[in-house]
Amino acid sequence: MSTTTIDGHVLHVDAEGFLTDPAEWDEQVATSLAHQIGIELGEPHWTVLRYLRSDFAENHETATLRRVSTALGIPVKQLFELFPGKPAKKMAYVAGLPKPRGCV
């Protein structure tokens, strides 16, 4: 298991940089992770991130893009705008969670 230091936080990560211990995450870490991939977090981002964290605590797996869209009533197109490129992967990364199943 690798570690990385982000803004003074030592974090355990996998080969792709995803946190392997969700307990190491906090909102400061999220802001730093988002900044690394070019995202400036606003309230819509935090709504998604808080949902992902809550859902993960309940289901022990990272929610898919479709589940986030359905649960929050946010169109998939808007999730692509909030987290451009590969939104499911980027949402999980910033939320400090494992990559969703089916994500390549």
Automatic annotation (TrEMBL):
Entry keyword annotation includes Cytoplasm: yes
SUPFAM superfamilies, A to Z: DsrC, the gamma subunit of dissimilatory sulfite reductase
Record-linked InterPro entries: DsrC-like_C, DsrC-like_dom_sf, DsrC-like_N, DsrC/TusE
Alphabetized UniProt keyword annotations: Cytoplasm
Subcellular compartments: Cytoplasm
Stored NCBIfam families: dsrC_tusE_dsvC
Family in the record: Belongs to the DsrC/TusE family.
Protein name: TusE/DsrC/DsvC family sulfur relay protein
